[in-house]
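Field log, afternoon session.

UNIT: design team B
ACTIVITY: writing a sequence onto a fixed backbone
BACKBONE:
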């Protein structure tokens, strides 16, 4: 059996090695390392993939979120509504800009922001809602968009974990996550579903004026070279990463299928076990399984994590400490929150290896070890 890994980017690379190597050498030979045709081509292809009008590449997913908040004119003293059960980047960028994150609960099944509690969190200072499509599953965007419209709030989607996910509205309209809100942000961190061989990120929008602002802020606030209209930052996707991502984008749907197939295998093995809740799949959403995350019931999660490690099975806890309990947010009143579902999940979730290269022998081994411990 091939060694088990949370994500196997190496085997994936072997399958596209020839194409990638040729493209990377071509970048070096062209010496066009920053900007240029390859970056523009990739941005256009990514926008088209999402059915979005504009794609603005940047240096990483965290920058994408920060630039999005800056472009929407959010400033110190404003508030954004976000889940606490997320990766820190979502909320850290708000704090960095002096914006107060208002943490709300997630839905116990979907792990995403619970729309039912959004309105209670709205104040006169609220400017935006920031849903996170956690683990590859879309948040309940129909309800979120309706609330945002009613209260004239912006929606910034954190789509770092759900690129390729498709959300269906009740009228039958289907949209890719990241192309639903005012701005969609994504990350090309190597382990993400569309991973670069280094860092990268992008922002999507359908709004022409907003696209100009995003582009300007990501490039030192320049309207034209050496004319700086607003305070911006320096956030670029380099040509080498763009070339690699453009190749991988062509495989993205097939990568998603492989992840979904692996998830089906786990589901079939675990679904009947009363101590294990398999990931929920909303009927109106195509889950892309960035993570395959179980919720345990009456099982010592940390002991299982250790048992798996001792048996050569990697697993991860995403995330052991929710944002509102991080020291970082003490100054933002983090300890004032009482988010029972978030705390409950934090103690019970465990993510198993899932990626494009898992084979049945590997999955059978993982399943056997999990069940061996759970059924003890
Ligand atoms: C990975 C990730 C980010 C940040 O992306 P980077 O490219 O690492 O900066 C933001 N939000 C979520 C939910 C993520 O998973």
């Amino acid at each position: 059996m091939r060694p088990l890994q949370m994500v196997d980017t190496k085997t994936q690379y072997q399958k596209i090695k020839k194409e990638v190597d040729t493209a990377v050498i071509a970048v070096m030979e062209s010496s066009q390392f920053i900007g240029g045709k390859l970056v523009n081509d990739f941005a256009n292809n990514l926008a088209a993939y999402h059915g979005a009008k504009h794609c603005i590449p940047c240096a990483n997913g965290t920058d994408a979120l920060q630039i999005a908040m800056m472009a929407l004119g959010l400033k110190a003293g404003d508030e954004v509504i976000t889940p606490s059960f997320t990766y820190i980047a979502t909320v850290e960028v708000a704090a960095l800009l002096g914006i107060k994150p208002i943490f709300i609960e997630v839905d116990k099944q979907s792990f995403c922001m619970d729309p039912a509690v959004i309105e209670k969190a709205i104040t006169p200072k609220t400017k935006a809602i920031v849903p996170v499509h956690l683990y590859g599953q879309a948040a309940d965007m129909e309800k979120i968009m309706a609330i945002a419209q009613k209260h004239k709030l912006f929606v910034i989607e954190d789509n770092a974990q759900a690129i390729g996910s498709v959300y269906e509205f009740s009228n039958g309209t289907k949209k890719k996550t990241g192309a639903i809100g005012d701005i969609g942000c994504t990350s090309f961190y190597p382990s993400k579903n569309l991973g670069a061989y280094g860092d990268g990120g992008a922002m999507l929008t359908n709004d022409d004026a907003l696209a100009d602002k995003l582009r300007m802020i990501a490039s030192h606030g320049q309207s034209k070279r050496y004319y700086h209209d607003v305070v911006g930052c320096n956030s670029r996707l380099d040509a080498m990463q763009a070339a690699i991502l453009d190749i991988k984008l062509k495989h993205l749907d097939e990568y998603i299928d492989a992840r979904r197939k692996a998830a089906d295998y786990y589901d079939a093995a675990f679904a009947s076990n009363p101590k294990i809740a398999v990931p929920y799949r909303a009927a109106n959403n195509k889950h892309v399984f960035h993570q395959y995350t179980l919720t345990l019931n009456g099982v010592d999660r940390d002991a299982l994590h250790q048992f798996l490690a001792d048996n050569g099975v990697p697993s991860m806890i995403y995330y052991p400490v929710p944002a509102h309990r991080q020291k970082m947010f003490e100054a933002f009143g983090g300890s004032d929150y009482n988010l029972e579902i978030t705390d409950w999940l934090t103690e019970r979730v465990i993510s198993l290896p899932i990626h494009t290269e898992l084979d049945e022998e590997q999955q059978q081994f993982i399943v056997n070890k999990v069940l061996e411990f759970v059924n003890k």
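LOG NOTE: The chain has a mean pLDDT of 97.
NEXT ACTIVITY: expression trials, pending approval
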